[in-house]
Specification:
globular; alpha/beta; about 210 residues; Maf protein; binds inosinic acid
């Protein structure tokens, strides 16, 4: 394996890996996931912001593998809840909460809140770390939290998040459509441009 052009995605989630891989294609990099490093377990997300968590993951994987790493962290910010659950979105209903438990808790928390006050956004932060540099980007998609769950596809808060200017929740969309407009896709598109320049300049030393 060429060390110079390999990028390790700091995730065990194969769904995320294929989404990230398809957007970053064309960079001339060999992109691998943590499935190639089974000895690496989940990294504890001890930060209090998305950027801290993304950097913790990317720095850890870069330090262990010696290869450039790209990590992401995502949160759902709900205006009526003062921006919560944000960085704690995965653990909103408790430490090992299921997606359904998080969705139910959100619907209960917003009970009685009128449509116009149900505004929210998904925010993804990406961190790229190699032995020379740390680069960060973010992607945001605005939308609203619906009053009940719609659709069966997707994961997380997909059944109750309806992006602005769309009639469907993320769960009701084809995955290709969601992956074209999502917070992660926006962040990855921006990161791709940064990495293109970075690798062209030849500033990297990995
Ligand atoms: P992560 O940082 O990607 O693990 O995201 C943290 C939490 O945000 C997940 O456990 C989900 O609950 C939620 N989340 C992240 N991305 C999405 C998405 O695309 N749709 C719905 N929920 C998401």
């Amino acid at each position: 394996m060429s060390r110079r052009k390999t990028l390790v995605l700091a995730t065990h989630n194969t769904h995320k890996q294929s989404e990230m891989n398809s957007i970053l294609t064309g960079l001339g990099l060999t992109i691998i996931g943590l499935d190639k490093f089974p000895e690496i377990k989940d990294i504890e997300e001890t930060g209090t912001t998305l950027i801290e968590n993304a950097l913790i993951k990317a720095r850890t994987i870069q330090a262990i593998t010696g290869l450039p790493s790209l990590a992401d962290d995502t949160g759902l910010e709900v205006d009526a809840l003062n921006g919560s659950p944000g960085v704690y979105s995965a653990r909103y209903a408790g430490e090992n909460a299921t997606f359904e438990e998080n969705v139910t808790k959100m619907l209960v928390a917003l009970k009685g809140i009128p449509d116009e006050k149900r505004t929210a956004r998904f925010r993804t932060v990406l961190a790229f770390v190699d032995s020379n540099s740390e680069l960060c980007e973010n992607g945001v998609i605005e939308g609203k939290i619906t009053k009940k769950a719609y659709g069966i596809d997707g994961f997380g808060y997909d059944p109750i998040f309806r992006p602005k200017n769309y009639d469907l929740t993320f769960s009701e969309m084809q995955s290709e459509q969601k992956n074209r407009i999502s917070h992660r896709a926006i962040a990855l598109g921006k990161m791709k441009i940064i990495l293109e320049t970075y690798y062209k300049k030849g500033e990297f030393i990995d």
